[in-house]
């Protein structure tokens, strides 16, 4: 049998590489806005490069915009919302 | 950020509130009322309290205003950190707030604060505080001096 493909469309799926493969219910949402990492923060409309994630030295991950909003308050004392350790951004090469 | 509250509401409705906690009123994303009981063998056995959460637009970046409801039907629990006007001196509602905390997490913390209480007393400065307290407990500058209860 010979099949001629007239047209096709591909569907792609993407995820941020958060450095772990475990997918649990709580683990893949931003702890601040509770939206999945692959979604975007409440201030953005489109997920992706314009609404990236940010990694802490403490290994906690948030939407960058959510975390910056928190760190922009005096109340944050520049601490990670999860463990209250001083926030330091982890520079990962990708 | 009411989308976060929408998610919290859906979670509470779908998976249920933590034991001893119930949602009494959540008609909007400004004010919620929850009931709180301390289960087990504690000083508050058989008592039921109501908690009012008031959210502003920047929740969860800023904490909600949380207080016990004091009206004809409800009283604030008698506890060294709870004033008779319903205001609560708890660090997580003030300078230890974190945006990863949720309504449910706050309720559980307050539940365990009551559960570990050794003697039912009002704070030593209750009368002085209540006569001058601002309507919004977040405007109070608390001194957190006692982590034991």
From TrEMBL, chain A:
Residues 41-84 form the RING-type domain. GO terms for cellular component: anaphase-promoting complex. GO terms for biological process: anaphase-promoting complex-dependent catabolic process; cell division. Pfam families: zf-ANAPC11. It comes from Phanerochaete carnosa (strain HHB-10118-sp). InterPro entries: RING-box_E3_Ubiquitin_Ligase, RING-H2_APC11, Znf_RING, Znf_RING/FYVE/PHD. Keywords: Cell cycle, Cell division, Metal-binding, Mitosis, Ubl conjugation pathway, Zinc, Zinc-finger. This is Anaphase-promoting complex subunit 11. The keyword NAD does not apply.
Automatic annotation (TrEMBL), chain B:
Gene3D superfamilies: Ubiquitin Conjugating Enzyme. Residues 118-149 are annotated as: Disordered. Keywords: Ubl conjugation pathway. PROSITE patterns: UBC_2 (PS50127). Residues 135-149 have a biased composition (Basic and acidic residues). Residues 1-149 form the UBC core domain. CDD domains: UBCc_UBE2W (cd23808). It holds the Pfam family UQ_con. PANTHER family: UBIQUITIN-CONJUGATING ENZYME E2. This is UBC core domain-containing protein. It comes from Phanerochaete carnosa (strain HHB-10118-sp).
